[in-house]
Amino acid sequence: MKDKLTKEEVLHVLDLARLNASDSEIEKYQVELYKMIKEIDKIKDLHDFDEELMIAPWENSSCLRNNEQVKLENKDILKNVPNKKGNFVSVLVEVLKDE
Amino acid sequence: MSKYLDLSIESIHELLLDKKIKPIDLVNESFERINNNKLNAFITIDYEGARKMAIELEKEEVEKDNLLFGLPIAIKDNIMVQDLKCTCASHILENFISVYDASVVELIKEKKMIIIGKTNMDEFAMGSTSETSYFGVPINPWNKNKVPGGSSGGSAVCVASRITPFALGSDTGGSIRQPSSFTGIVGMKPTYGRVSRFGLVAFASSLDQIGPMTRNVYENALLLNIISKKDEKDLTSFETNEDFTRLINKDIKGLKIAIPNYFVSDIVESKVLDKLNEIILLLKNKGCIVEYVDINHIDKAVILYQIIAMGEASSNLARYDGIRYGLKENASSLEELYKKTRSLGFGTEVKRRIMVGSYILSGENANIYYNKAMQIRDDLKKSFENIFKDYDLIIGPTSSRVAYDLNKENTDPLKCFLDDILVMHANMGGFPSMSLPMGFIDNLPIGMQIMGNRLDEARMYQLASFIEKELNLNLEVGDINE
């Protein structure tokens, strides 16, 4: 009987979450994530409920704010940018080749 | 050391009005207590900003009708305060500085309250002990070997040890109420939408809510008066303008109170149930009608919470990419940058939840898990609404046991979800729920939960004020530094 995820399954989940892990961490995740997924899998056994969805406990009908610009200065926003050039956020350039 | 902060806020206000003390005296006393107690309740302490504001307030007349004028307050470190760090207790935001005030912080500043710092917490509010903080765990002042609860553990410790009379916390599945129970204070998770979430760093957006944590019921209601307001920047907030203190100390005779059988089942330790039974007797003797009820789907809340909270968390935390703000690791490709930054920046608990959350939302799994959870969540909410057709309030224990040992149970990935097994229903349905102290077990405080229908906070405070007055518990921790 299965008691942990395979290494490949953990690698897939790590990829979905944009995370890396060492071999020892992967071994740990194989057991921990298995436990967690086994727990949420219990929802598959639940059948007695209505089809109506509740996305949020929120009953407001209007959902548009005033058409006003948020008052934030560029220099303030840029304070927290780890890599910048002048007034711009600097991002790694990647050229993707067609396979 | 002065002890103004042990006085009632009415007494402090009188002293301010009579010019016997100044706001700077209160601020200095808060700082002195922080430094003496060494409880690690704070991640950032704003010595300079708080003292500057206190001195500026000396130029103003003390506002006679504003009991909160000049009083110190602490803010959980996932709520933005302009020019202060907002770390969410995470390495990934260790050096992030807020560039604006959260809407609740604007309201607090309008009332001339003085923010003395940002409180410690579980990383991104994920946890129930505050042990997942990158900055070390805050200490429970009742027993330094016990957890303070979480995720708003720093705010709870701050109020319990009387560093400030007030703190703000956030509650996604019990994160205000459970630490309030473990530290002997009053904590309220208001109705979803009562308090703006603009400026609260999102964990699970359909569950998150900011709320007040205080020494007593009246001060809690007073702070909720201030922070509840419709906000155009949070489209889930609603028009709200009421005095939550209006029913405090009013007669509770005839109130109909329900106790879900699940809340008094064998998931709760017997000593905790004994304390609750004392309260039930008290209420019956006062003329309340107290009855036990079954609530459909109540035992499913943990599974729903896990799915919804982890799914929404994985989506909300996708923004930490090492590009726009926060930690950045060196890398040769974007993919490598994301993965290296996030792997180094997030702690174990957060990473586990993001992984499972990403799995929940991936491909067909979104239907199998998330959509189904939202369907059952709707049923659960309706089940509670049906109870509120016949009863005014629901009560039960806040937590199944008192605060437990530090570093003892933090390796089980499922454990922290079970800590909130009695309180997460309120987040599921958007209902208000509060914790107030109901006694001591083995010299540790334990809280009870009062849950109301949507918008019924004033009635919850009415019942809470009666219980608080009748029990008249001594909740002063004493000299912690000894």
How would you describe what is shown here?
Chain A has 99 residues and is mainly α. Chain A has helices at residues 7-16, 23-40, 74-78; strands at 84-85, 88-89. In chain A, strand 1 (84-85) and strand 2 form a beta hairpin. With 482 residues, chain B is an alpha/beta fold. Chain B has helices at 9-17, 23-37, 47-57, 103-110, 153-160, 177-183, 217-227, 270-285, 301-316, 334-345, 348-361, 365-390, 415-419, 424-429, 457-471, and strands at residues 42-45, 72-76, 114-119, 166-170, 186-189, 210-214, 256-260, 289-293, 393-397, 433-441, 444-452. In chain B, strands 1-3-2-4-6-5-10-11-9-7-8 form an eleven-stranded mixed sheet, sandwiched between helices. In chain B, helix 9 packs across helix 11. Chain B is globular and about 65 Å long. The mean pLDDT of chain B is 96. Chains A and B meet through helix 1 and helix 2 of A and helix 9, helix 10, helix 11 and helix 12 of B.
TL;DR?
The complex is a heterodimer of chains A (99) and B (482). By secondary structure, chain A is mainly alpha-helical.
Unreliable spans of chain A are: none
Number of strands of chain A: 2
What is the tally of beta strands of chain B?
Answer: 11
SSE-based structural type of chain A: mainly alpha
Question: What is the distance, rounded to the nearest whole angstrom, between the alpha carbons of the first and last residues of chain A?
Answer: 41 Å
- Total count of helical runs of at least 4 residues of chain B: 15
Low-confidence stretches of chain B: none
β-sheet strand percentage of chain A: under 5%
Task: Describe the largest sheet of chain B.
Answer: 11 strands, mixed
Number of helices of chain A: 3
Envelope shape of chain B: globular
Mean pLDDT, all residues of chain A = 87
Q: What is Rg of chain B? A: 21 Å
- The SSE order of chain B reads HHEHEHEHEHEEHEHEHHHHEHHEEH
Helix content of chain A: 25-40%
Structural class of chain B: alpha/beta
